[in-house]
Design brief:
Layout (H helix, E strand, L loop, with lengths): L5 E3 L2 E3 L1 H22 L9 H19 L3
Antiparallel strand pairs: 1-2
Helix pairs in contact: 1-2
Length: about 70
């Protein structure tokens, strides 16, 4: 098992790029939900929290992916 390239039109693309692009809107949506429910007031350093949230979402996508 491992990470294998995906061929799109005879161009090999790393799955890490796809996971990165997939994690961005999910993170953005989570941040929007947090601000809607006013949960961001419990966060001490907002940018560190956003980066950590992105890394967690990216890691979950990577672990759960079938590639």
């Amino acid at each position: 098992m491992g990470i294998h390239e995906i061929s799109i039109g005879n161009v090999y693309i790393s799955p890490i790029l796809i996971y990165t692009l997939l994690a961005l809107p999910i993170t953005y949506g989570a941040i929007r939900l947090m601000s809607y429910f006013k949960l961001s007031r419990f966060v001490w350093h907002e940018m560190l929290f956003i980066i950590a949230l992105y890394i967690i979402i990216f890691s979950l996508i990577t672990l759960l992916s079938p590639f």
